[in-house]
Amino acid sequence: MTQALQTIALGLLIGGVYALMAAGLTLVFGIMNIVNVAQGAFLVLIAMLTWKAWQLTGLDPILLALATTPLMFGLGWLLYRLVVVRVRGTTPAMSMLLTFGIALTIEGLLNLTAGNYFRSATPSYFAQSFHIGSIVLPKAQVYGCLAALLVLGLLYLVLNRTWTGRAIRATAQNPSGAALVGISASSVAALSFAIGTATAGTGGSILSVLYPFFPASHYEWIARLLGIIVLGGMGSLRGAWVGAIILGLAETITATYGSPRWATLVFYAVILLVLLVRPHGLFGTRLREDVAT
Amino acid sequence: MNPRVAQTVAAVVLVALIAFPFVAPTATYEHTVLLLAFLVAIQAISWNIISGFAGYVSLGHSVFLGIGAYTAGILSTRWNVHPLALAPLAGVVAVVVALLVGSVVLRAKGPAFVIITIAMLLLFQVLTINLPELTNGSDGITLELPAWGRDVGNIPFYFMFLGLMVVTFGFSAWIRRTKFGTGLVAIREDEGKAAAIGIPTTLYKNLAYAASAFFIGVAGAVYAYFLTFLNPLGAFNILTSVTIVLAALVGGRGTLWGPVVGAFIVSFASEAATVYGGGSQSRLLLFGLALVIIVLFLPDGLLPTLQRRLAKRREVEYTDHAGAMDHRPAEVGTREPIKPQPGPLLELRDVHKAFGGLKAVNGVDLAVPAGSITALIGPNGSGKTTLFNLITGTGGTHTGEIWFDGHRIDGLSPWLRAHHGLGRTFQVTRLFKSMTVLENVVAPLESFSPRVLASGAVAGHEADRARDLLSFVGLGRFENERAGALSYGQQKLVELAQVLMLEPRMVLLDEPAGGVNPGLVDRMAGIIRAANRQGVTFLVVEHNIPMVLDLCDPVFVLARGEVIASGPPGVIRHDPAVLDAYLGEVTA
Prior knowledge:
heterodimer; A: mainly alpha; two-stranded antiparallel ribbon; 2 strands; 72% helix; B: alpha/beta; 2 domains; 4-stranded antiparallel sheet; 55% helix; elongated
């Protein structure tokens, strides 16, 4: 019983972090129909930068998100304006090839500059835990989840309470309609891409504490995130939430009751199963545009 | 590039490649560089079948190399069989995996396929690590050493990969020439349209995916023997996948020679970078940058870009005037009804379709008499095109029944409806713009059988019939032009010829006169009449009311998703409800 509660608590904590990371990916897909395969590489890049900054200054890695999030926002904005914008209007496959190329470039750069071995940021609370009854909650997990929820809350406020957010949601629902009422499609696209990558800023800083990482970790991360948004329904923020919680739980449960080495497989299984049974996921619009229907 | 020049160059290069090991038997390093280039070419050519011809990009295609390699590795050690003897089986295993995965994702369009292909590669990595009983996990599998002596070096592998490359290329070239190949290109250009002209798109995509897996699987077994050691990260390598994609993109995705040319360029460049530019450490970075640069600046690849630069396209003056076209009567010919049914040819019974709260089609009953030219008119937004989409099977779910020629057809796929003899044209023409006019007209499949796959794309009586139909619509002399180069009105005529190729019992025309030069409208009406006299029933959506009233009988009037009037044109012309619908409803 304790073990079950413990597993569920850990699953929920990690689910919150996944929700943030996946939110950026699904937002970008919803608005511009681009699957940003580089999101995993952005996470690992920021984790590496956070780790370096923590090493040099001793600042708290999760608090460093205050710097890395705006940094990724700016980088995402630039990347969109300079590079990604050129593949708008081509096929989704071309934009995926492009972002895949960006991911490889980042991985290659990290390999050359940082070296191909595992790292993990270990602040003072790294090995400490909160004890609630018999349940043990590692402090790093709790802080990470809180930071993720905070940023998700901010994202929610921006999307629902500001003009910019309305413009973004309007563009996601009906691009030409949004353009007709005076929303600049290119600004909204740049902005959403930047917001999408900014979530990788926060996410990457949290990641540096929660998981050991090395340059090629980004494949594992993008697979996780794709599993989440495919399950939730690509383009749906609510779906990213629900998918993240479900898969956070599923991964933790598999690791506890099965074996950790099978835990990553949960995501691949989910991708395959969802695309087979319910291709538009839990909340998504139709991802699989069936010709016959 | 002129095909003959290409063939000559290829033949010279091939002879040189065959001669090379005899001329320089001790150049083991060069042999190895070349044989690895052959391996990349085998994969890029195969990749091109699904991702170039059919347009479904696979980002994890090296998964089949790993599957082939592991099949040979596992079975040769267990059964004590020579790895090379297992090569065909390795190909079959790759095909089986492709079919299993393909049947899941290839029912779909969109990003699902790309996602699955990446996921599959990573999945096989994890599986081979996690199933040590079968694969020996991360420790990998060691195969027997090659039987031949050291003095021959890699020369036997050199010839094996060279041979496989030639065979794979022949296979790809053969596919491109068949009707199956044209079907794949049609799917790439416009999948919905391909289904509407009778191409079973799901089956085609699955076959293409399987075809793209076979030779990579075979090569995988040879590769395993070449390496003599297999481990999960090496066999299911993401960089190998990227190399394949890069090679095909550099050369020219969708072209025949592009993947071959690209494979050599990428292999040599990558080798040069390893030797002169900082070792294999930097390869990942270089490949990533190369992928970005090619997608941004050379998305079509070298060969098509060069071809465009070199060939100054001859400019042809096109005109819509009837005088510029030839006239020749032709047999339109419809297939014999399988069993003649009394009553209407097409019948809709209480059909409803809603988009959210909007009732686009609301309880439509409609019967098209066999042999008639029936019109469906109504103001914009009254549901005409939606109704067309429901009839042809591209409109999604709906309630009510649709009967055609005595069969209930709602629930059938678009291509099966086409095989029943139901054709359509589109409001905005949807020709396959990169194909020639003649290729467009022979693209439709009036029925499907496995034999169709292997038959030549433009051959025999089919080509003759297509030429007849082109003459029939007056465009015979444009058969070798790219369809995209024709004027809008001419494209509408080509689309009509295309749909008549189905030997349809009935054709749905969506605004045949819309956006067409007035001189061509009469010609269009004449063609419709002529085809009708030969037995084709028409259902026409049109805004050109004089043309409708002149051409059609009966006329159905649709407004707000409901049939508000029907009858002969003389009656419709004076129906107050119709005038009301067109001129605006009188508010009380």
